[in-house]
Amino acid sequence: MKKEKFKQKYGPWALIAGGSQGIGEAFARVLAMKGINLVLVARRKPLLEELSVEIEKTYGVEVRIISADLAESSTFNILKEHTIDIEIGTLVYNAAIVPIGLFLDFNMEEHLKAININCRGPAILIDHFGKLMKKREKGGIILISSMTGFQGTPLTAHYAATKAYNIVLAEGLWYELRAHNIDVLACAAGATNTPNYMATEPDDPGFLVPKPMDPMKVAQEAIAKLGKRPSFVPGITNKLVTFLIRRLISRKQAIKLIGSSTDNMYGKKI
Ligand SMILES: NC(=O)c1ccc[n+]([C@@H]2O[C@H](COP(=O)([O-])OP(=O)(O)OC[C@H]3O[C@@H](n4cnc5c(N)ncnc54)[C@H](OP(=O)(O)O)[C@@H]3O)[C@@H](O)[C@H]2O)c1
Q: What is 3-269's CATH number?
């Protein structure tokens, strides 16, 4: 889509929840290249400040930063107040918590935090910004999910379940909101070279988890797919693995295969 048309449909502002590093930072850059102003939300203020200055200078767009924790209920009122005077034409929900380990080894507080950040957050922000987009009869919503959301995934069982929530929610909303000229997309990413992923120091997973993708490639492909489909998997190798897992083998076999990969990656660490 040409830059002016893109700005008209998805601008003038985008809010990226979890927009200071990794895939969220990549979305910030790709949207800024398209002339969209940004509201970047994350906890660490110094990272947000550094990125906002750099993006304003490089791409000539306006950037607002909000340092807040998406696990806290109060954050959502702060986001609403700080965006009352601008039109959010695109919402990207990227932040997530990824507890790695056996479900029963975590306490309930940790499980509820994962639900708050990974599921409650997108629901609240879609409710707010989606209603405003509906009044304007235009907009875009992207939920960053994961290939783990396609089936039960041992050692990240709860995380995978929250990511399934994002895929299914986006797909349903893709249908409901297209009548209002609002495009919704779930981006089911595979391993991606981000600070968070690299910090987990995964051991060699075997063929099922290809080499981590460049976050910019993930964001570029997602923006290209927005308005064209309800959900997608970035990267050719990830697409092939998804085809194998979802179409060629049974669900039970898929869970076992994914289980042995995650065991290879994290089994020795827990
Ligand atoms: N990287 C992968 O291999 C991979 C694979 C599949 C799916 N994904 C998905 O991609 C998304 C991004 O992952 P990533 O690897 O890019 O993560 P990341 O490098 O840690 O970046 C996450 C972003 O969200 C912010 N954030 C995290 N928790 C937050 C909270 N409680 N409140 C506010 N902001 C918060 C982080 O900043 P602060 O820490 O400063 O808050 C950062 O800006 C996630 O939804 C993840 O499930 C990633």
A: 3.40.50.720
